Amino acid sequence: MPQHIAAVTIVVPDYDEAISYFCGVLGFELVEDTPLGAGKRWVVVRPGGSSGSALLLARAGSREQRKRVGDQAGGRVFLFLQTDDFASDHARYVAAGVHFVERPRTEPYGTVAVFEDAFGNRWDLIETK
Fold first, then answer.
1. pLDDT tens-digit readout, 41-72
2. What is the pLDDT of residues 1-45, one digit of tens each?
3. How far apart are CA 20 and CA 118, in angstroms?
């Protein structure tokens, strides 16, 4: 049976703040927002126009989870956002206030720059060759 990764959980401090950032700033689409009771929600977003992997936005519910917000990969790049137009997406993100921690660079595999999301997680914006 074929398998694929449907979603990756990202711990966030607040559902609405995360939806606003991912959909309003990064241009993701809200796939699902279903109340689960007791203040919990099933919130799924993914890059606009994509039918691939998604992010499950999980509100931190404990002190230990709150400590992990923005540091889910120990300071390393956590997620890779692939684009077919690096220059356009990079310019749009800069204009929207996305914090890039480095200038774009060319690598043997493509063009890439690291940015931090609103919560501190590091991402690669990448256009592969």
1. 999 999 998 988 999 999 999 999 999 999 99
2. 889 999 999 999 999 999 999 999 999 999 999 999 999 999 999
3. 10
pTM of the predicted protein model: 0.93
Amino acid (one-letter) located at 81: L
Question: In this structure, is residue 70 part of a structural domain?
Answer: no
Rounded CA separation 18/70 (Å): 12
Expressed in angstroms, the distance from the first to the final Cα of the chain is 31
Question: Which domain, by its residues, includes 118?
Answer: 77-129
Number of domains within the chain: 2
| H runs (alpha helix) in 1-129 | 15-19, 63-68, 86-95
Cβ of 11: how many Cβ atoms within 10 Å? Answer: 21
